[in-house]
Specification:
heterodimer; A: Amidase signature (AS) enzymes; 15 helices; globular; B: about 90 residues
Chain lengths: ~500, ~90
Amino acid sequence: MEKTKGKIKYLGELLRNKEISCQELTTKYLESINQDNGKLNAYVSVTEQEALDTAKAVDKKIASGEELSPLEGIPMTLKDNISTKDIETTCCSKILQGYVPIYNATVWDLLKSQNAVLLGKTNMDEFAMGSSCETSCFGGANNPHNLAHVAGGSSGGVASAVGGNIAAYGLGSDTGGSIRQPASFCGLVGLKPTYGAVSRYGLIAYASSLDQIGPITSTVEDAALVFDAISKKDPMDSTSQGGAEPTLAKLNQDIKGLKIGVAKEYFEGVRDDVKKALEQSIKTYVSLGAQIVYFDLPVLKYALPVYYILACAEASSNLGRYDSIRYGYRTDENYHSIHEMICKTRSEGFGKEVQRRILLGTYVLSSGYYDAYYKKAQRLRGAVVKAFQNAFQSCDVILTPTVPMTAFEQGFSSKDQIETYQTDICTVPINIAGLPAISIPCGFDSKGLPIGMQLIGNTFCESTILNAAYQFENACANQIYKNVDLGVKL
Amino acid sequence: MITREEIQNIAILSKLFIDENELDTLTQDMAQIITFADTINTAVEELEDFEDINNLSNVFREDEVLPSYDRSLILKNVDGGENGYFPVKKRV
């Protein structure tokens, strides 16, 4: 398989040319999950029957000569915070163990209507709160490039599955970098769409003004294909605007004259090998005819605390619904009032990081602290939005590292909380500003771990960043992709 | 600096029980996070109020009754419920 030829298109051609049946393809993926999931801990549930039933329906269509849509019959996965009717959805939290949604998230309805083959639900930081997947109640997902390192977070399971080739692609969610960071750590492409481009109906909420669903894939073409399938206006999500133009058809545009913005603040505190890979990437873009525009982004220094204040405030409200009365885990019968039952359930059901974030959120919203923290953070959010709007007056795309480092070793995030939060410095400003951004591999560190580059676009300009990423991928595919010795062998 | 008592108070508002043994460590952790959050109070930039992202506005529609989920489905996650209700043990 050619490096930049999309995996989805490649598998689709195999199906259309009858080189493999959809049931055979699905069985190969299920066997690989059986063989490799013990090492990767990517899946928290496997939906074998659902996958085989869909595969059978696809084979029937192929046999009757019907046309297949692009995602039809392709084995994939969903992060475990995306609601799936009749399939357990836990957010990797004890408090939701056993919870079976009675409806589908809109993104899953859209993919299911194309006969996407769901292999199972994947691991994540509990309620998407974390950068390493280690806050999952199922234990963290491992990095297919080096199992002693984390897959990243919070969508670590999707990245581990796609990187380890036990899913062709997956959907994650991104509140502060949770698609882009694991994609960067696992040598994959991760797209966080514009706020409002993809419906969040059925996505279990963490911070509603920041959350977005997007694809984690092996190549840029795959990301464009999946994004086009899920970017639709949805009456069930009042923030959904759809409206992003189809991106796949626009992947072959010349980038001569494309203005790429680079802000020095984005390179402060970045590890040397990451910086070097990024400098090399800038040179590649120059050789492709792009112009580099340097600008300042001083407001960046406030982005991280602003993010943690706003995200935790929203989480403290969103997670108020877990009272154990209507679904999920409930404490044993040793309580004397409903209040005690709810408090005991929540203290036993939520992990430590989730409790810490609920407490911080309650604190910044409480009387006496609201103005100093929440209100001030909201106003600074406005300043971040404005700073990016100004930057896009003089450039089309902004280039940054995705993460200042490569995948950290297991256990890193439990040592110093603030240091772990700081690894999100490059990704959180994008959620604050509601912009689209893509992470694409741009090299390897001395240990052979992937390095990610982030391309940020103006609102609803997904096609601009996907095309810029695609041109880069074509120019240096052999330097940025490395196959790992796991998963499906076709 | 945030105190043990403040943490206990916030925990009540958050409907969480904090174990006495964990209170000191949690107070330290929270103090560290709040110091980090305090960075925003060093901002000297002129700031305006911020309403929402991407100029979203409310979408209103006629209040029409649309089909909803069947009660038996809603009660599915509590083993079907009891007489059409969510059951909790009597504790009064």
